[in-house]
Amino acid sequence: MSDVLVLNRKFYAINITSWQKAISLLFIDHAKVVDEDYNTYTFADWKGLSEHISQHPAGFVHTPTLKIAIPEVIILRFYDSLPPMDIKFTRKNIYQHYRYKCCYCGKKKDISELNLEHVVPVSRGGTTDWLNVVTACIPCNMKKGCHIPEEVGMKLIVQPSKPKWKGPVSLCFKSGLKIKASWQKFIDNVYWNTELE
Questions:
Q1: CA-to-CA distance for 182 and 197, rounded, in angstroms?
Q2: Where in the chain is the domain with CATH 1.10.30.50?
Q3: Distance CA 7, CA 86 (A)
């Protein structure tokens, strides 16, 4: 089945959700389906339209009494805010931020061959945040141990940094999804109309 792009009331891409959640929101009238021409459809409208669609890229949900096309994009009826413009400090996001590479030797490794590494060890006052935690392969991590890199002749190839939220494109990268053709217009619209820092 398929994931669904979620827009706020201003047609700004804010989330990616499961098809089950999207249909639930549609059914309880908290969302509408959006097509590529920005037309919106209530549950009843979409149900009626689905009966006349023979093929749909996202597929269909069948029940004993109806067949409904899984929407690819929905718009929330009562929400016009934006999600927090911050990427959560999680293991998954740290590995993705450093592209599964050791920040000391630069080699790309399998996740089983990488550790999260405090540049300044916690035992020496280091913090557990974006600016002190990097990915390190096991050999580099073992060599560094509980020292500061310079003490053991090591140097960071990649400096610790906090990733920037890049609008709705971040949603796709964060969850490892490819951007669907039906999402592209909404994501492009945000890209070209977002105020630059």
A1: 28
A2: 91-152
A3: 18
How far is it, in rounded angstroms, from Cα 36 to Cα 95? Answer: 34
Closest residue by Cα to residue 16 from 152, 127, 182, 194: 182
Look up residue 161 and give its amino acid: S
Task: Report yes or no: 26 and 74 within 8 Å, Cβ to Cβ.
Answer: yes
pLDDT in tens, 132-174: 999 999 999 999 999 999 999 999 999 999 887 655 545 544 4
Kindly report, residue by residue over 26-64, the tens digit of the pLDDT. Answer: 999 999 999 888 889 999 998 888 888 877 766 777 788
Distance, CA of 114 to CA of 140 (rounded, Å): 10
Cα Rg of the chain (Å, integer): 22
**Summary mean pLDDT of the chain:** 83
Instruction: Write down the architecture of domain 91-152 according to CATH.
Output: Orthogonal Bundle (1.10)
Residue with tokens 């805010």: 81
